[in-house]
Design goal:
140 residues, 14% strand, 2 domains, alpha/beta, five-stranded mixed sheet
Length: 140
């Protein structure tokens, strides 16, 4: 019997070295290449995008003033500098959002570093429920 490895007790077979037959590997790789070449055009499909049309340069873009909402370390909220309660926030956000549905307001959050995460999550959830998508974090 011929083995692919040599043993110390089998003197006539000490020169044998294992050989790897790469022809089946090359065949498999070529088949995979052909499969991927056939399948890749079928996988690429157009993504529908609705891009914003450029306005005329004569029309200046007027950005609405963002809602400035501050969250203190103890969870107190301030709407444009005026203290409000957490339960009144969703209604106020919905009223501002419904004022001009085509141009929803932006929200500028000023969060104290020591504030609780739950207070921030509640404000973000209220903004999402009011369809306010432009939210920015500003330094307190």
């Amino acid at each position: 019997m011929h083995y692919a490895y040599a043993s110390t007790t089998d003197a006539p077979h000490q020169g044998q070295v294992a050989e790897i037959n790469i022809i089946p590997l090359a065949d498999v790789m070529l088949v995979l290449l052909v499969i991927f070449m056939i399948a890749s055009p079928a996988l690429s499909y157009p993504i529908p995008l609705q891009l914003q049309q450029a306005g005329s340069p004569d029309t200046p873009v007027v950005a609405s003033e963002p809602i400035r909402l501050a969250i203190a370390a103890d969870g107190q909220l301030a709407w444009n500098g005026n203290a409000i309660s957490a339960w009144a926030l969703p209604g106020m956000l919905e009223r501002e959002s419904a004022r001009d549905p085509a141009d929803r307001p932006s929200l500028a959050l000023s969060v104290d570093p020591d504030s609780d995460y739950q207070a921030v999550a509640t404000v973000l959830a209220a903004a999402q429920n009011a369809d306010i998508t432009r939210i920015g974090f500003v330094q307190p």
